[in-house]
Specification:
This protein has nine helices and six strands, in the order αββααααβααβαββα. It is of the alpha+beta class and 267 residues long. The strands form two sheets. The chain has a four-stranded antiparallel beta sheet, with helices on both faces. The protein has a two-stranded antiparallel ribbon with strand order 1-2. β5 and β6 form a beta hairpin. The chain is elongated and about 85 Å long. The two termini are 22 Å apart. 14% of the residues are buried.
């Protein structure tokens, strides 16, 4: 299904950290500062802190002190912008209206998602469909040695045929900095993995214990060895649970938008 870019952005925002916005004052909401008479309230600091903590920042008193200073700075700039009449400019008014619309849309989507949770049974049913649609695949426990020059790659292959150890040659000679310290080990690689095509095609032809001829890719020449082969298992339910939940919520929201459109007059 083709998604409208604006709707896709709204759906992405549903699962992102909410933007920091001023909160409505409550009777028990302490005023922590005043900027030319305008109150900065504790609830604003707490809202901003929750967002940052959700992103991985530590919850410390220093965090709240910094947020208080930032809110004061924002209020100072806001007041100055209003004093200079920026809020009356057409282009600024359009941006304010767009921001208001985005806040309302994202808030509605968050409320809708909370009110339409995905049940455990539905998640498991979706997982069963996911498993059933997974094409069969093999996994290869592979190593490689990357050499820029074909002649040098053939020399490496000759050394292997004479009995030199693959992992030692990879550590000494491979130009792949990500794997050479591990003896060229790539770990288990699925036959449908998104790797460069010549490498994948050569690897899939190898049986357990076999080594390829030098394989040319954009990175150079690879000498590939397969240490083991096994049938690939799909990821477990718990491994994909969060991703499935997001997928099903997005699908539900897309259906909700289609239902709204069907009842609306769109000219």
């Amino acid at each position: 299904m083709k998604r409208h870019p604006f709707l896709a952005a709204c759906l992405a925002a549903l699962f992102a950290t909410a933007a920091t916005v001023p909160t409505l004052a409550r009777a028990d909401d302490d005023v922590v500062a005043k900027v030319n008479g305008t109150a900065i309230r504790q609830s604003q600091i707490e809202t901003a802190a929750r967002n940052l903590i959700a992103q991985g920042q530590q919850d410390t008193p220093d965090l709240r002190t910094r947020l208080k200073d930032e809110l004061i700075a924002r209020e100072l700039i806001l007041q100055q912008a209003a004093a200079e009449g920026l809020d009356r400019r057409d282009e600024v008014r359009e941006q304010i209206q767009l921001a208001r619309s985005n806040i309302l849309i994202n808030s509605y989507l968050q409320v809708w998602a909370r009110e339409h949770p995905i049940s455990e049974d539905d998640l498991k049913a979706e997982y069963d469909k996911f498993r059933a649609n997974q094409p069969p695949a093999d996994e290869f426990l592979a190593r490689h040695i990357l050499i820029k020059d074909e002649k040098a790659a053939k020399a490496v292959l000759a050394k292997l045929k004479k009995g030199e150890k693959f992992d030692k040659l990879a550590t000494a000679l491979s130009e792949d900095t990500g794997t050479k310290a591990k003896g060229g080990e790539l770990g288990w690689v699925r036959s449908d993995a998104n790797l460069v095509q010549p490498f994948m095609e050569a690897m899939k032809k190898l049986k357990k214990g076999e080594t390829s001829e030098p394989v040319k890719t954009d990175f150079g020449f690879h000498v590939i060895r397969v240490d083991d082969v096994r049938k690939a298992e799909p990821p477990s339910f718990e491994q994909v649970r969060a991703e499935l939940n997001q997928f099903m919520q997005r699908r539900g929201i897309e259906q909700m938008v289609r239902d709204l459109r069907a009842k609306a007059t769109v000219e």
